[in-house]
Amino acid sequence: MSRSGIITLTTDFGPSSPYVACMKGVILTYNPRAVLVDVTHGIRPFDIRAGALALAEAMPWFPPGTIHVAVVDPGVGSDRRLVYARFGEQHYLAPDNGLLSRLAQASEPHMIVAVEDPTLWLEPISSTFHGRDILAPVAASLSLGLDPARLGRSQSSLVGLTWPEVVALPGKIEGAVESIDDFGNLVTNITAAQLVDCPRDERTRVACDEHETFGIFQTYSDQPSLTLVALIGSHGRLELAIVEESAAAMLGVRVGERVVVTW
Amino acid sequence: MSRSGIITLTTDFGPSSPYVACMKGVILTYNPRAVLVDVTHGIRPFDIRAGALALAEAMPWFPPGTIHVAVVDPGVGSDRRLVYARFGEQHYLAPDNGLLSRLAQASEPHMIVAVEDPTLWLEPISSTFHGRDILAPVAASLSLGLDPARLGRSQSSLVGLTWPEVVALPGKIEGAVESIDDFGNLVTNITAAQLVDCPRDERTRVACDEHETFGIFQTYSDQPSLTLVALIGSHGRLELAIVEESAAAMLGVRVGERVVVTW
Amino acid sequence: MSRSGIITLTTDFGPSSPYVACMKGVILTYNPRAVLVDVTHGIRPFDIRAGALALAEAMPWFPPGTIHVAVVDPGVGSDRRLVYARFGEQHYLAPDNGLLSRLAQASEPHMIVAVEDPTLWLEPISSTFHGRDILAPVAASLSLGLDPARLGRSQSSLVGLTWPEVVALPGKIEGAVESIDDFGNLVTNITAAQLVDCPRDERTRVACDEHETFGIFQTYSDQPSLTLVALIGSHGRLELAIVEESAAAMLGVRVGERVVVTW
User: Fold this and answer.
1) In the complex, which subunits touch A with 3 or more CB pairs below 8 angstroms?
2) Cis omega (within 30 of 0) for bond into A124
3) C17-45 core/surface letters (b: 16 or more CB in 10 A; e: else)
C-alpha cells in the first residue's frame, strides 16, 4: 500500500463541532505524524448522498496513498457494517451505507474489507461514535503501514444507492442537479464527455425547471452579471450558474431538479 | 513535561474569523513544527460555559503533552488573570474566568501558574487580543520545552463556575441538559456511572420539560425515525435524541432544562 | 527567497466547501511537507474588498517566507491576470483584481510577476477553478524553492481599488467602518498613529451614523455591559464595540458607514 501520510475527514458533524477534534486527537495519538485535511464537516445531518458526492469530488486531487475517513452514519451502533475500500490508490473508511456508492459508480473498488477486528479499536467503544472509536484508530494504523487485509474479512460488494441516470438521445440529454455549491451554482450529473456532440453556441438550449439558457460557455464571466449561464464546471460536469449571484437562491432550484439539454 | 507538539485552539472567534489564523501565524513563527488542531471556534461570543464544556469534551482524546489554548475572554485587558494549568498530562492556557472550571470539577489540576512574565510575549501587546499576543507565543514556547514554572507565580486555585449538580435519590435522578450538539442531541450532566442501578427497559422513565420516553437504549437506531430516545452517548453521559432529527429543534429544549430519570 | 513551508488559504468558497480540500490535495501532492493554514473561507462570494482586508489582517503574524494564496475571483477564466507579488518577506498568489490592493496601500510590493507559465500548472486546467489548477501547484512549487521569476514576466503594477481615505483636520478625523468581525465589532480605517494628538478622555467624541460615545478606552471591559465604547483594537485601528454584545447588530451599522472623531 502506497502511503502519503494524509488522512482526510468528511462528516456531518457541523463545521464547529468538537467531535471532529476528538477524532483528530485519536488519530494523532496513534500517529503523531499524520497530516489531517478536512474535506467538509458541513454535510447536512444524515445526508449520505451529499457525503458521497463530497468524497467523489475531493478524490481526484489527493496524492496516492491518501486515507479518506467519512462519517455520515445514521445507523451507528446498528448492524450496518463499517468498511475499508480501495479505489485506485485512494483508501476509504466509512459506514457501508452508500457513502462510497458514488465512487463505486465511477469505478470498481480494488478491495473491500469489513472493519471488524476489535483489537485495532479504542477500548471501550461507544455505541454512538464509531468515527472516533473505530475509524480514527484504524485510519491511523493504516497510515502507519497496517495491511488493510488485517482489518477483517474480504467483502464482495458495497451497499449501493441509486444515482439519477443521465439519458442521452439524439439531440437531447436529460440529467439532474446533483449538488449545489456555496456560490449557489447548480452542478448536474451530465459530464463533459456526454456533451461532446452538442454545439456550444446558441443552438443548444439548457433548461431547468421553468428556466432556460442558450449556449454552453467557458466560464462565468463570458456573460454579464445576473445572467443565467451554462458551462462545464470544475467538476467536469455541466453546471448552471447566475453570473456573480446564487442560481440556487434566485431560481429556487434544489438538488434533484431535472435538467434538459436540447440542440 | 511530556510533549506531543500538538497545540489545540478553542475560541469564540467564529469559524471564519481571520483572528484564528493570526494566532496560528504567531505560534508557527515561534515553533514551525507545532501541529495545530482546531477544537472549535463556534462558541457563542463570551459563552464561557460552552467553552469549558468543549475543552472537557476534547480532553480525553488527545495524547499526553498536548497544549490546549482557550480564548473566550470577555474580560480581556482587565485585571482578570491568564493562567497555565495542567490536568493529568494535558496542558491548558486560558483566561482564568471559569473556562477551566469544568475540567477542575472532574479532577484537581496538578499545577496552576499565572501567565505574567512579559518577556515571553509579543511586543507590544494589544489590550484586546491576548490570545494572539500572549497565549499564542507562550503555547509555542511550552511546545518547545519551556518549563511552565517559568511563566509566573504558582497559584493555589482557579476561578470556578457553579455547574448544575446531579441529585441522586432512590429510584430517581435529577440532572440537566448541559450542551446541545450540531445534530440537536441533548447531552445531560448525568453520567453512566450515576445510572448504574437504573434498569435499561421500559420501567425507566426519562422526562425533560413536558416530554418523556421509556427505557435507555444503546444507540439511536434502536428505535424508529422521529422517536424520542434516551441513551448513554459518546460523552459517557445520558443523552436525549430524536432518531434522525434534531431533538433541540423539535422539542424546543435549551441548555439548562431539567431532566428527570425515574424507575 | 526565504521559506517557511507555510501556505495560507483565503477564499470565498464557504467554510464547508470541498473546493478548499481540492486545493489542499493538489498542494500536498506537489509538496507533502507543506504546512497549510486557513485564513478564512467565509469571505462573502466575490467580495474582493473583504478578501483584501483579511489578507492584510493576517499578514503581520506569519513568519517570513510564508506563501499566501487568495481566491476571490469573479473573473475566473476571463483575461484577468493571475499574479505573484512579494510584500516584505511575505509571498502572495492571487487574481490581479484588487485582492492585493489593501496590502499595496500600506507598502510597495517588492516584486510583481504574472503567473503565466503553464508548464507549472495542472494539466488540463479548468476555466472556472484556477485556484486549484494554477495557484495551488504554483504555491507548492514556490514552497519547494522555485524562483518566483520563473512564473512569468515581471509586472510594474497591480490592479488597485479605491480605499476610503482618512481625512485629518485640526480637532477632527473622518474615516469609515472598514470591516466587522464575528463579535460585531466595527473596525475602522483610522489608525492609532492618526489619533496620536487626540485626548483619550471624554473631551473626545466618536460618532458613527446617529450614535456617539465619548473617550477612547483601552479595552472593552473598561465600560459596563451594553455600553458603546471606542478603543484602539487589535488591528491597531479605531474600533467601535458594544461591551459583550454585537455593535453591528444593535446599531444596524454596515461596512462603509462614516466615523467622525472630534475633540
Assistant:
1) B, C
2) yes
3) bbbbbbbbbbbbbbbeebbbbbbbbbbeb
Q: What is the DSSP track for A58-84?
A: HGGGSPTT-EEEEE--TTTTSSPPEEE
Measure the CA–CA gap between A177 and A258, rounded to whole angstroms: 6
Residue A192: CB atoms within 10 A of its CB come to 13
Instruction: For residue C82, give how far its alpha carbon lies from the nearest alpha carbon of chain A (Å).
Output: 15
Compute the distance between CA of residue C116 and CA of residue C81 in angstroms, rounded to an integer.
Answer: 8
A99-148: pLDDT as tens digits = 999 999 999 999 999 999 999 999 999 999 999 999 999 999 999 999 99
The alpha carbon torsion through A184, C130, A191, A89 (nearest 10 deg) reads -110
**Pairwise CA distance, residues A252 & C245, whole Å:** 34
**Residue C2 reports pLDDT greater than 80:** no
Could you tell me the pTM of the whole model? 0.96
C-alpha cell at B62: 488527545
DSSP B48-89: HHHHHHHHHHHGGGSPTT-EEEEE--TTTTSSPPEEEEEETT
d(CA A85, CA B188): 37
Q: Is B127 on the interface with C (CB under 8 A)?
A: yes
Q: Does the distance separating the beta carbons of A41 and C14 come in below 8 Å?
A: no
Residue C4 confidence (pLDDT): 83
In what helix (H) or strand (E) does residue B8 lie, and over which residues does it extend? strand B6-11
Report the b/e string of C65-81 with b at 16+ CB within 10 A: bbbbbbbbbbbbbbebb
pLDDT of residue C3: 78
Contact A19 B246 (CB under 8 A): no
- What is the CB neighbour count within 10 angstroms for residue B125? 16
Amino acid at A34: A
For residues B12 and C182, give the distance between their C-alpha atoms in angstroms, rounded to a whole number: 9
C-alpha–C-alpha distance, residues A102 and A235, integer Å: 14
* Predicted local confidence at residue A135, as pLDDT: 98
C188–chain B Cβ distance below 8 A for any pair: no
Pair B261, B198: CB distance under 8 Å:
yes
DSSP reduced 3-state for A31: coil
Q: Is the pLDDT of residue A211 over 80?
A: yes
Contacts of A10 in chain C (CB under 8 A): 18
- What does the radius of gyration of chain A's CA atoms come to, in whole angstroms? 20
Of A61, A181, A246, which has the smallest distance from its Cβ to C26's Cβ? A61
The reported pLDDT for the residue numbered A3 is 78
Give the Cα separation of C220 and A202 in Å (integer): 59
**Cα A22 to Cα C151: distance, rounded to the nearest angstrom:** 41
Q: Which amino acid is at B31?
A: N
Q: What mean pLDDT is predicted for residues C70-77? A: 94
Candidates C92, C80, C56, C55; CA nearest to C130 is C80
Judge whether B78 is closer than 8 Å to chain C, CB to CB.
Answer: yes
Distance CA C36, CA C184 (A): 28
Alpha-carbon distance of C154 to C148, in angstroms, equals 10
**Predicted local distance difference test score (pLDDT) of residue B1:** 59
CB A48 within 8 A of CB A97: yes
Q: What is the pLDDT of residue C138?
A: 98
| Confidence bin at C1 (pLDDT 50/70/90) | low
Residues 6+ apart with CB under 8 A from B235: B57, B187
How many CB atoms sit inside 10 A of residue B119's CB?
6
Cα Rg of chain C, angstroms: 20
Condensed to tens digits (0 to 9), the pLDDT of residues B189-214 reads 999 999 999 999 999 999 999 999 99
pLDDT digits (tens, 9 = 90+) for A12-28: 999 999 999 999 999 99
